Every structure is written in C-alpha cells, then in structure tokens.
Amino acid sequence: MLEVTNYDKEAKVRYINAEWRDKDDSPRIGSRETRRANTAYQDVTIMDARSRLDTGDLNLNTNGFMLSNSSTKVSSFRDEAEVAKLYYPEMQDLICRVSGASQAFVRGHLIRTEKPIDFNDGYSRFVHCDYNIRRLEEMSLELLERHGVTPQDNWEYVWYNTWQPFDHQVQNNPLAVIDWDSLPTRDVIDYYYTGRDLDSLVAAPVYSPDHQFWYFPMMETDEVLVTTQMDERPGNAVYCPHSAFDVLDAVDPLPRRSIETRLMAVFEKE
C-alpha cells in the first residue's frame, strides 16, 4: 500500500558537472558509464505544482510546463501501430488546444517502464533538455519534409513533449521539471547524446541552488504533463529541463509506466 505524507520532496538529482561550463568541448552522454563520469548528484527540493494549478500560477509560455487532461482510446501502449494511429492524433489535438498552435506534427514516442530494454529506455536519471535551440530550424524543416508538408513564410515552430502515465497512477519515479522562470540562459550548456550510435547536439543545465523544481504528485492515467523543449519566440520559456526522481517515503509503490511523445507545433505569425 502506498503511503506518502508530504508532497514536497527532498531528493537527489544528477546534473552535468559544472566544470563543463568553462570548457571549449562538450560532454558526451549515452550510457550509464558516461552519465556517471559527467554528472554528479545535487540535493534539491522538488515542490508540489498542483497548488499552482489551483491559483492559476502556471503558464506554458512563461514557466515551460503545465498539466492537462486527455483520455485515450489506446488499449495497449506496447502496440506501436495502435499508438501511432490513435495516440498521436490525441496528442496533436492536445498540443494545439493548450498552446494555441494551428497544427502539430509528431516526431515519435518513447515508452518507459520498470523493465527497460537498455539505458536509453530507462527512466531519465539526470537533468537535461531533449534538444538544442540551435537545431530548431533544421529539425522543424526535416520533420515537415517527413510529413510531406511545405513550410510557409509566416510559420514559426515550437517543440513540446507530452508525458502521460498508463496502466496506473504514478507512485514512484515521477518527472521533475525546472521552472524556466528560475533558470538563467547562462546556466544551460551544450552536450551530445550518444546513445544508439547517435551524436546529437542537445542541452542541459549545470547546477544552481536558485533552480526551482516542480512535479505533479500522483499523476493519474488521464493526466498529461506538457513541457517546452525548444521555443525561440521572444519572452517565452526556451527549455524545460527535467529528470525522474525517487520518492523515498513511498511504501511498496507501483512501478511507473509512461509514454512520452515529441511534437513540433506550428504557429502562424500575424
């Protein structure tokens, strides 16, 4: 039986080592060994974001994250064809609804459970962003080409992730996010994701005690966490760094099972 007495949590999360901020090179992480070599634990407080929902103190553009609701018609998230047919349109509709985008395109999805196939399928174990803003135009045009869509001169692009539990409530290893309002741009550095024979430029923050961590306790299967992964529009959150963390005071928690989708949204300039 799950017993949790306090929803604000003291936790340890891994950050990329601060020494990389002053180097000309960037770390490469794509395995447990390279993660351990280039990151270190920091003590943080992860606060309950549900109170911010009650007061209306959350804005996707300003903070980089929000919670929404979406019931799904998917019967098995392990069936990739079913996910693509049913879940992708659900998440496209959700992104347009919460962001105001005119349309959205799915790049792909990831399933994470207590039994990962390899390092790349496991719960995220250090604070990171999924992309790098310097690749926004390149990745957006590549995705439009994949979907057979011709870009228009008045289009601008924003990349989002959706994160939703399935099978049951999230009781351990929830996703913690950093509020962009507490994250100076200078704290975000480049790194390269090298898993599965890739060498992709992405981004991650280095530690600062000023970063504010938030999460949504006990997320249900009809709840969806939306995070910003690339947004170059002036005044908006550029990134939403994130990491899973252990709920240390949970007793016999169910294993977390979740699906995340990665989408690019199109906004039309007036």
What does this structure look like?
This protein is of the alpha+beta class. It has one domain (9-268): Jelly Rolls. Helices cover 18% and strands 33% of the residues. The protein has 5 helices and 13 strands. It has helices at 32-38, 50-55, 60-63, 80-99, 136-146, and strands at residues 9-16, 28-29, 39-48, 65-69, 103-112, 155-165, 175-178, 188-193, 200-205, 213-215, 223-231, 242-244, 258-268. The chain has a 5-stranded mixed β-sheet. The longest helix is centred in the N-terminal third of the chain and has 20 residues, at 80-99. It is globular. 36% of the residues are buried. The model is unreliable at 1-5 (pLDDT under 50).
Beta-strand residue percentage: 25-35%
The CATH level-2 architecture is identified as Sandwich
Shape: globular
Terminal Cα separation, in Å?
A: 53 Å
Major sheet description: 5 strands, mixed
Order of helices and strands: EEHEHHEHEHEEEEEEEE
Strand order of the largest sheet: 1-3-10-7-12
Any idea what the radius of gyration is? 18 Å
Number of strands: 13
Pick out the low-confidence regions. 1-5
Write down the domain tally: 1
- Indicate the percent of residues in helices: 10-25%
Please report the number of helical segments: 5
Q: In oligomeric terms, what are we looking at?
A: single chain
Q: Which structural category fits the helices and strands?
A: alpha+beta
